[in-house]
Write a structure and sequence with these properties.
Rossmann fold
Amino acid sequence: MALTLDVADPQSIAAAAEHVRAGTGRLDVLVNNAGIGSDFGVAGVDPDFEAIQRALDTNFFGAYRVTIALLGFLRKSAHPRIVNVSSGMGGVAEMGGWSPGYRVSKAALNAMTRILSTELKDEGFLVNSACPGFVNTDMGGPMGATKSVQDGAAGIVWLATLADDGPTGGFFRDGEPAVF
């Protein structure tokens, strides 16, 4: 079942949770894929705090709020999976200048992935982050991304369909471990 929601709007998240409750009442996989680059090209030494706040509200708080709102439904699954779509720009190993809101929001999402994977491991959850790469989407296309959506999604699908003995708490790019 696919739902349309605005992850930056708590009322929209609550409506989505109600939709799941009224439907199957269970969720097997949650892919947190909402993301914005509201401060691309903005320098950290000359920040646009409103743009940074928008990035955090969507890329981090939105994914975190959706996860918490749907956690009870995921707990009803025999094989619960959470996949947070992140970015190499949020990995400390690839951290550089510019776009502080986007970078920090994705780094926070990676940190939350580790926290939730630790806290939910004994319940059978696998919680991971994925960097799809520079994908030709509404965000990446205007900046020259050439990786197809299908190729970008492959690593996310892999994480969503892991066997129960699969990794948890990791950060992956194209099905391979990446450095946080």
